[in-house]
User: Which sequence fits this backbone?
């Protein structure tokens, strides 16, 4: 690759917002944006290792993240440093908004984990979602979030999560 800026990948700043506050922000390589779906790639942006018991996110992991402007979720393909697929981490979010080099996503607490072989499908943080107060504050958004989790769960259990990413 030469020093020509045209040869460098475009970067965006991913901003994850939760309960009105920025939870994390990190730079990511813009892989594609077709006007509906934005795909970015970034190394694990957390501090150190995060061990969930069923998967570990750690330095060297690479996330290929798919965000939609018309869907209430994002799907993140997680690979180890050696390229081995760990699985897919799905966040239930409001539809993503991209403005220039910023991609803003609002996390709605619900998550889904799907192991690489598809045999372990876990709904996560339903207790946090219930405690968030979203159902009372914004019933339409709460219903959309639950429907999105149900859709991803059904796709994962039918072995069809990858269809979203193709």
Assistant:
């Amino acid at each position: 690759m030469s020093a020509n800026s045209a040869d460098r990948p475009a970067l965006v700043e991913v901003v994850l917002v939760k309960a009105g506050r920025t939870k994390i922000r990190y730079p990511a390589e813009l892989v594609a944006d077709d006007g509906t779906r934005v795909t970015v790639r970034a190394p694990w942006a957390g501090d150190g290792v995060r061990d969930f018991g069923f998967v570990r996110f750690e330095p060297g992991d690479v996330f290929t993240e798919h965000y939609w402007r018309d869907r209430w979720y994002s799907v993140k393909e997680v690979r180890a440093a050696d390229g081995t697929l760990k699985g897919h981490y799905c966040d239930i979010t409001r539809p993503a908004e991209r403005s220039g080099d910023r991609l803003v996503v609002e996390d709605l607490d619900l998550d889904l984990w799907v192991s690489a072989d598809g045999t372990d499908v876990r709904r996560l943080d339903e207790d946090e979602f219930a405690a968030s107060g979203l159902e009372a504050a914004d019933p339409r958004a709460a219903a959309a979030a639950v429907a999105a989790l149900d859709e991803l769960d059904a796709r994962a259990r039918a072995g069809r999560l990858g269809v979203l990413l193709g």
User: Anything to note?
Assistant: The mean pLDDT is 94. DSSP finds three helices and eleven strands in the chain.
